[in-house]
Amino acid sequence: MNQESLLAYRNFLKDSVRQNIDFGNTAQSRGVPPPPLQKPFPEGAERVCLPKEEVWPSVRQTDLVGAIGRRRSHRRFDREALSLEELSFLLWATQGVVDVLDSGTALRTVPSAGCRHALETYVCLFRVGELPEGIYRYLPVEHELCCVRKTHQLRQSLVEAVLGQAFVGTSAVTFVWSTIPYRMEWRYDLAAHKVIAIDAGHVCQNLYLACSAIGAGTCAVAAYDQQRMDRLVGADGKDEFVLYLAPVGKIPKQ
After folding, report:
1. Is residue 2 part of a domain?
2. Separate counts of helices (H) and strands (E) for the chain
3. Could you please report the per-residue DSSP string of 165-215?
4. 186, burial (CB in 10 Å: exposed 0-12, middle 13-18, buried 19+)
5. 85-135 pLDDT tens trace
6. Whose CB among 63, 90, 150, 214 lies 3.0–4.6 Å from 134's, allowing a Cys bridge?
7. Are 99 and 106 in contact (CB under 8 A)?
8. Domain limits for position 53
9. Looking at the domain assignment, is residue 41 inside a domain?
10. Residue 31, domain member (yes or no)
11. CA 249, CA 254: separation in Å to the nearest integer?
12. Order of strands across the sheet with 241-250?
């Protein structure tokens, strides 16, 4: 990469874009209604109700200081399945809705610039309770899963999409986060894209800490074939595209 290109990419991390934005002319300032809290799901789609917080007794005893101290990236996973209760907890910890403020705004378990929450969560399920292998999307408002599609070739397709990183395919479940940029652009215009990336970091860190509560591990992954990952979850690659992923599995016992 030449020096000019290097500086251009570094500029993305600065707040220098903001000075060129007319914040009196954003979609929000023009009175355009905010985009919905989550991507709509098809009418009649197969949905799975997730266990509520009342059935997470073990995670209540987790020592936060200890969980932070034990945080590591794990690339080796046990063959043990995750329970549906455990998956429910991980989804809530990373994108759960705490309170809906209005039709386009909700407080969640993670921070987000302007409370815009421009991420969608997909999970590639391999070993979770009795659920069939397949791709599901998390519906945070309902705290449910929506089946995208069931497939027996998912493991191979996922590994190919992450450029041959085989450990991703050994997980019990792999979290895949896409972004719908307009949710953030509605308020921040061109300044949206830096904070979308920052938000993804908040979400994944919560996953690391939540995994500690259930004896599981994860490893953040940002290297993948963009088009393959988008096709895998059904994103169009323009108004929605994959940004980040993280495989999750139980840590092998010593």
Report:
1. no
2. 7, 9
3. -GGGGGSSEEEEEEE-THHHHHHHGGGHHHHHHHHHHHHHHHHHHHHHHTT
4. buried
5. 999 999 999 999 999 998 889 999 999 999 999 999 999 999 999 999 999
6. 150
7. yes
8. 47-250
9. no
10. no
11. 15
12. 47-49, 144-150, 134-139, 119-125, 173-179, 241-250, 216-218
Contact 174, 124 (CB under 8 A): yes
Helix (H) or strand (E) holding 231: helix 226-233
228 token code pair? 């393959």
Cβ-based neighbour number of residue 121 at 10 Å: 22
Note the pTM of the prediction, 2 decimals. Answer: 0.95
Euclidean distance between CA atoms 224 and 178, whole angstroms: 13
Q: Which tokens go with 3?
A: 């020096």
Q: Quick one: CA dihedral 243, 110, 42, 172, positive or negative?
A: positive
Residue 179 falls within a domain, yes or no? yes
Q: How many angstroms separate the CA atoms of 194 and 13, rounded?
A: 7
